[in-house]
Structure formats: C-alpha cells, structure tokens
Amino acid sequence: MKFKTTAALLFMTSSLFAQNKIDDATKRMNEIVQNGSLAQKNTLANELSLEAKTSKDANRLEVISNYLYQLGREESSDSLRSVIAKKYPKSLVARQEFVTNDFYKQKTAKDKENSYKKLLKKWPIPKTGEIKIAYDYLIANIANSYIEEGNKEKSLSYLNQLNERFWRAQGFIPVATTLLQQGDTLTAIPLIQTSIEDAEYFMNLPKDQQDNKAGFAAVGYPGYVSQLANIYSNQGKHKEVMTLLENAISKNPTFASRFSNTYFKALENAGRKLEALQQLEMIYKSGNFAFKTKMHELYTSLNGSDKGFEGYINRLDNEVIKYIQEHISQFAINQTMPNFELLNLKGEKVSLESLKGKTLVLDFWATWCGPCIRSFPAMKAAQEMYANDNNVKFLFINTWERDKNYKENVASFISKNNYPFEVVYDDQKDPNNGKILAEKLGITGIPAKFIVDKDGIIRYKLTGSSSEIDYIKLEMKELIESAKKPISQHSLAKK
User: Fold this and answer.
1) Do 149 and 108 form a contact (C-beta atoms < 8 A)?
2) What is the rounded distance in angstroms from the CA atom of residue 417 to the CA atom of residue 410?
3) At 336, phi and psi to the nearest 5?
4) CB-based contacts of 203: which residues, under 8 Å, 6+ apart?
C-alpha cells in the first residue's frame, strides 16, 4: 500500500478545507460503502473497475481508485493509481506517487531539497487552491531535516516559504523545539510567538468567517502558549509569563485548564499562593495527582499547618469520582455487541461466544495511532487492577493497519514494549456485508473503547483517550463496575 500516507494527507486536505457538492451517484456510492451488503459492494467495485478501463479523466480515475480502496479492493486501487501516474504524468496522482516513492525515500535534507525541486519543475505550486498545503507538508519536512542537521539558515529559509498561514505553526513548532534542544532559545522564540499570533488571528475572526481553517489553527494554541511560558519561566521572566497566560485565558477561557500546569508556577512565583493552589486543584480534578506534594506545601503555607489536609484531599477525591460518574454517563449506549471471531498473536481464535459471562474492555488501536499508544501505560495499569478478577477481560483489537506485514509489526511492537495485552487482529470481514468489526461498530476514529457486560451488551463507548494514568484507572474502574450492574431490558437498542 505504498501511496497511502501521502494520499491520506491530500484526502484530508480536500475533505477538511473544501466544500464540495455531492451528486446522487456519489451519494449512492457512499451509502453502499457505509451500509451496503457484500454483494452490493462487489457489484459497485466491478462497475467502477469497468469504468476505469474506459475513462480518460484523471480526476475521475483517482476517485475510482479511492472508492476501490474503501470497498476492500486495495490491490486494484494501488494498480489503478500506478496506471494513472504513468498515463497522466501531470496528474495529482502522479505527483503523490513521486512524493511517496522519491521525496519520502530521501534520507538527508539536501537530498529532500533536490527531490522537492524536481517536483516543483513538474508540478509547480498553483497560485490558487487549497492544494498548496500539500506543498507545505514537504517544505516543513525539509526545514525540520535541515535544523536537525544543524543548518539553521537553510531551515529558516524553508519555513519562510510556507504557503498557508493557518497551518504554518505545524512547521514552525517542530523547528523551534529542536532549536530549544540545541540551546538556541533566541531563534526559537520568534517562531513560537508567530505561531501564537497566527492562531489568535484565526480565533479572533468573526464567527461567520470561522471555518475549518480557524479550528485547525486553534488546536495547537494552548501548547504554543505553554511552550513560550515555560521558556519565560526558565529565564526568570515571571511577569511576562503572567501576561502571556492571562492574555491567552482572556481570549479563550475554555483553554484555562490547559494552562493550569504552567499557570500555577507563575502564580506561585508571583506570591499568589491561593490562586496557585486553585490551579493545582484543577489539575488534580482532571485526574493528574502528580502535584499532591506541592498542594500539601501550599496548603500548609496558607493555613499555618497541614491540619485538615487529608480531609481536603478526600473531598477532592470525591469530586473527581463524581465528575467521572457524570462524565461517563454520556457514553452509555446499551447496544448488542456484534458477534466476532478474531485471531490473536498466537493464531488462536478469540470469539465473543468464548468470552460470554465476562465484562469486556475492548480497546481498538493501531501502531500508527499516537493517542492509542500514549494511552497504553494507563490501560496497562487499569488492566493490572483487575488481574485477579477472572470475570473481567481486556482485549486490545488492532485495526486499520496500513502495511501488508502488519501482523509482524504488531507482534513486534507488543513484544518490544512488554505490554501484557491480549491482542487480536481486526481483519476478518463479515461474509454478509464485507465489514470488519470496527466498521460494524461504526467506529470513525481511534482509539475507541467499548465496555461490554457479561450478557454481550455494549454499555459504554468512548473515543479518544488520555495519558493520565491515575485518571484512566479511576475511569475504567467506574465503567467496569457500572457494567457489572444489571440494566433494564427496555433500554436496549438492538443492532
């Protein structure tokens, strides 16, 4: 599947930042891809394959290739893309093939630069159109390679070539981070400041002008601000830290909790101990208990002794549990779990039927999924809580892998990291509709977790994750213990 990484990025660009009309034929194909039977999917795939033999439209052929991939005809999709690239050497598919097979194969910054120059000669950057971001991916890659090799001048010159303001922080911040690691704070600061200014520009646009670009630009804003605040703090510029953070919080109060870690330090340095303790309370309530010692120190300083501290912490613990209980209630779905029979790393069959009578924690993940991997230490800790409970089973369901040798990669990843997980491969297609388990469950993003009770009813569905080990342990305990309790039958929604 050699083209997938680049193609996925370009597909993301068109879907996130462009508004496209969907005609009836496209609606039909989308419906079949999402909900069609295996027979319908095969029929559509055959129709598209026949069309591909006669079509002379490079854009249409690319669409056909994408649909064939979604319909499970990966080899046909790859083969068609190769044909398009050869037959239409100026097409976007040909460009994507070049990026994948030439640019991303280069090891040094200079070689990447030369490859990029070849690309520009054949596929110049268009003056208009969202496709310019595809070039920004490559420009940022070159800039990052140069800074890692210690060539600051070249790196900065490429950063100056980035086209899209809403995206350029994605190029600036990695370079700034490397500069900081190299001890060049002076050069790093302007890059971070510009990233903050860009995000604020899009965040401050009138609501009727805020589109997907504005949302994308704002995503990294808390991180940029925190990074700059940490630099100022290390430099002893506590006043600058306070100004930066309070300005950021005033611009977007919803980000306040994201700054708590940095903000409490600034408040403490400013002698505002009560406010510093309040920020630590926010961190504690989020499930991060790492600052308990500092909370004890501030509490004692404010009260003259630590009398009542344990009661104070107990009240916070109760608030955390109450919040989790209220939080997980929104994830309750009560649906029948689809039957499955999947193979584990040893090639043994693991089925829903074989797990009947147990409360299940199903964690859908992939080796390329950063949030999935970041949650694993916490999931390991949660699993260890139930190590002696034979009625609770954790199952880590590997899905959506991109490489043909995914089984070897997954097994190697689990072994290398010493994860004591029961892993199964989600690669068995339903004979009726051709869907893998993730599709049958309607998963659109991973990590995705399902808590299934002993009767095979999905009690909770969660997407996304956290790396906070203490919080995940508490959350999982509440989810599992809740799933052990009976529910009324009338609330079940049958799939």
Assistant:
1) yes
2) 11
3) -70, 130
4) 214, 217, 218, 221, 251, 252
Write out pLDDT tens, residues 62-109: 999 999 988 888 889 989 999 999 999 988 899 999 999 999 999 999
- Compute the distance between CA of residue 387 and CA of residue 476 in angstroms, rounded to an integer: 14
Token match 């040909």: residue?
Answer: 94
CA 93 to chain CA mean position, Å: 26
pLDDT digit string (tens) for 368-411? 998 999 999 999 999 999 999 999 999 999 999 978 889 999 99
> Which tokens hold the place of 332?
């309750």
Cα distances (angstroms) measured from residue 231 to each of 45, 238, 244, 249, 486: 55, 10, 12, 18, 52
> What count of residues does the chain have?
495
Give just the sign of the alpha carbon dihedral 59, 63, 64, 65.
Answer: positive
Torsional class of 442: left (φ above 0), alpha (ψ -120 to 50), beta (otherwise): left
- Within 8 A by CB and 6+ apart from 11, the residues are 66
Residue 82 in 3-state DSSP?
Answer: helix
Distance CA(298)–CA(383), nearest Å, equals: 34
Looking at 22-131, list the stretches that DSSP marks H as alpha helix, in order from N- to C-terminal side: 24-35, 38-54, 58-70, 74-87, 92-101, 109-122
